[in-house]
Write a structure and sequence with these properties.
single chain; 290 residues; alpha/beta; Rossmann fold; Hypothetical Protein Tm841, Chain: A,domain 3; 2 domains; 6-stranded mixed sheet; 4-stranded parallel sheet; 10 helices; 26% strand
């Protein structure tokens, strides 16, 4: 039986216990802050990041991982006899997949599959966990790839930001650019489509935006039960996120639920106060069971 290891990037922001329990390796992206190069979730965690961001005179930027960062992990796993499945942030949002692709070429004897998640954050985490659990249950590399693609096709994320300033400044605004220049107090609701940020609608208050996120999920999953995995992700808004998750658990009764922070790299582009809801629905629960 083949041994399969999963590699992802830091924007999935998986808890350490899930990483260690499921043979997952994480390649960090980079936060660039003035002269500092900080590895995402290694040199700087979300709490430290958002505290610093609130008083920073110089705003951070971000960078994809180096080819060497992937190469080191690929060589180590290959030497241990693993086949490798790498699932990373959308190629429309980051050059991370390109770094992994270049690293793969430098380990010609290794069996490495690369998947563009077309998402990031919780949706990426959902795909990584599904693949890791399938691998632990004996699935082949090809079967794990197919499962990731199935999860990808059955997932979505909606998120509300306090301002489009951060997405605009970082060049990740995509179709949400049509909301630029609208009334400052309006709260944009965004989603990901084919890996890019797209605009959905705008509402008048943060409270209404957060309620609207749940309504959107309800409309999307109508008739597509069960909800396999449900999660809420936030930028320095843990209380709001926890309340939303509790409400969603009552409303949707998902098989599994998660609460997560956005990694510093993602927070650089969304800004503080962002709340997102992500879900996977309509998949046979046996395919992605814990």
């Amino acid at each position: 039986m083949s041994k399969i290891a999963i590699v992802t990037d830091s924007t999935a922001y998986l808890p350490d216990d899930l990483i260690s329990a499921n043979n997952i390796s994480v390649v960090p992206l980079v936060v660039i802050w003035g002269e500092e190069m900080l590895l995402d979730n290694v040199d700087i965690d979300p709490k430290t990041f958002y505290n610093r961001l609130s008083t920073a005179a110089v705003m951070p930027s971000t960078s994809q991982p180096t080819i060497q960062a992937f190469l080191d992990i690929f060589k180590e796993l290959h030497a241990k006899g693993y086949e490798i499945l790498t699932i990373v942030i959308s190629s429309a949002l980051s050059g991370t997949l390109d770094s992994a692709t270049q690293a793969k070429k430098l380990v010609p004897g290794a069996k490495i599959a690369l998947v563009d998640s077309q998402y990031t954050s919780l949706p990426l985490a959902f795909m990584v966990l599904a693949a890791a659990r399938a691998a632990k249950h004996g699935a082949t590399l090809a079967a794990c790839v197919k499962l990731v693609e199935t999860v990808r096709d059955h997932t979505q994320v909606f998120f509300a930001v306090d301002t489009l300033e951060f997405l605009h400044r970082g060049g990740r605004i995509g179709g949400a650019s049509r909301f630029l220049g609208t009334a400052l107090k309006l709260k944009p609701i965004l989603y990901l489509k084919e890996g890019q940020v797209e605009a959905l609608e705008k509402v008048r208050t943060s409270k209404r935006a957060h309620a609207r996120l749940t309504e959107l999920v309800e409309a999307e999953v109508n008739g597509k039960s069960p909800i396999n995995i449900f999660g809420v992700v936030h930028d320095s808004a843990e209380k709001t996120a926890a309340d939303l998750l509790q409400e969603a658990e009552r409303k949707f009764n998902p098989d599994e639920s998660m609460l997560a922070s956005l990694s510093p790299v993602l927070g650089t582009h969304t800004g503080p106060g962002t709340i997102g809801i992500a879900y996977v629905s309509g998949i046979d629960p046996q395919l992605i069971k814990p």
